Amino acid sequence: MVERLPRSEGNSIGYSATDELSEGEYEEILADVEEAIEEHGSAKLLMDISGVSEPYAEFDAYEEDFGFYLRHGEDMECYAVVGDDSLIEWGTEASDLVTDTEIEFFEEDELDEAWEFVEDDSGKRRE
Questions:
Q1: In angstroms, rounded to a whole number, what is the distance separating the alpha carbons of residues 93 and 52?
Q2: Distance CA 5, CA 68 (A)
Q3: What's the domain of life for this entry (predicted)?
């Protein structure tokens, strides 16, 4: 199950997932992000997957994600991933190296810090 977080506002969008994301749920999230891009010129995304056991998403959802970044990578200011798994942390760090989007991993007890990262106008993690 995926839920849009109530703190979402403007082009700062947050979601929480409690189960493996289906392709349909992923499409719903990406449609919301695309709407923010159309309305605000860019989007900032927070994805809390700390309640999800592996795998994080269906394989088709990963394909959808890749296609989205090919179309809108330059429109994404930042992306915060909140989780409790070292593999997710490693994947987040690897993604940050190969995209123009500022991507940061946060531990599950750092949700407020993740929101600050997403809501910050600079799109940079505060040290």
A1: 19
A2: 21
A3: Archaea
Asked if residue 117 lies in contact with residue 111, where contact means CB atoms within 8 angstroms, the answer is no
pLDDT single digits (tens) 79-90: 898 988 766 666
Give dist(CA 50, CA 19) in Å, integer. 10
Could you give the CA distance from residue 79 to residue 5 in angstroms, rounded to a whole number? 15
Its pTM stands at 0.81
HSE-CB at 99 with a 13 A cutoff on CA atoms is 24
Nearest to 15 by CA among 27, 1, 32, 2: 2
CATH architecture label of 2-118: 2-Layer Sandwich (3.30)
- Asked if 59 and 19 touch (Cβ cutoff 8 Å), the reply is no
Contacts of 66 (CB under 8 A, 6+ apart): none
